[in-house]
Amino acid sequence: MNKYTLMLLFCGLLIFIGTPITVKAQFGNVEQKARNKPTLVIVGTYHMATTTSNVINTDVDDVTSPERQKQMLELIDKLKKFNPTKLALECDYKNQSKVVNQYNDYLSGNFELTRSEVHQIGYRLAKESGHEKVYCIDWGVFPEDSLYNYQTYSKQHPQLNEYLNDLYKDNEDIAKKDSAKIASRTIIENLIAENQPVANEKSHQGYFKLLRIGKGHEYVGANYLSWWYGRNLKILTNIIRFTESPDDRILVVYGAGHNYLLNQFARESGFYEVESPLNYLRE
Fold first, then answer.
1. pLDDT at 206 over 90
2. d(CA 175, CA 170)
3. What is the largest CA-CA distance in the chain?
4. Strand 86-92 relative to strand 135-138: parallel, antiparallel, unpaired?
5. How many CA atoms lie within 13 A of 106 on its CB side?
6. Model's pTM, two decimal places?
């Protein structure tokens, strides 16, 4: 090895050693071997605005009613005890600037909160915690490949279509029962129910029923499920990207259907100390 080659290798080593600071600043400051890690709490919630992109929605009462607003303030007081340094919300990652502007309008009194949990819980808690911004972490770009769309595929096969319709009917029955339960409980009681590990696991298992959709080399249900797993991995990636310090205490407000995978992936990553929101909701 000549002196010129050795010098290049040495320079390359210096560049390599110098890059982690830049990388951390740009792609998140997380380390699996760290003694102290950022803390993550994922609060799974029902969709308070009802209207979502979900196949089946649960009808809920108006969270802006005087009684519900009183309960909302009680919820915020409980979640404040976590002392979050950042609020991560179910809004599209590409809309970060728009949401930050909207949040600033709220801080200045120029935006009225809608029924959405993004506003009711996210904006309120961020304001109460003295935060200058909130963070959008959602991602949901669905592939154009028709072999990922189990609904369209099932319509082409009578037996599969019947099977899927039966699944929908079962889920509609569950949604009706959930609506009645939500109406009979306080907001805090509802969130305690939404964040029970056993209930989250059972809800997650429902996705695996889609594995039966497909024939031969057409793994449509499996394709969809791989997209669902990928979506949650990308959501976690978005959380990682704005993690700046081991002292960060990040509170995530997200649809409870994501609870199981987000908690699983966050724990498996080794990047965070993952706490249960029940530690604060039950106080």
1. yes
2. 9
3. 79
4. parallel
5. 24
6. 0.88
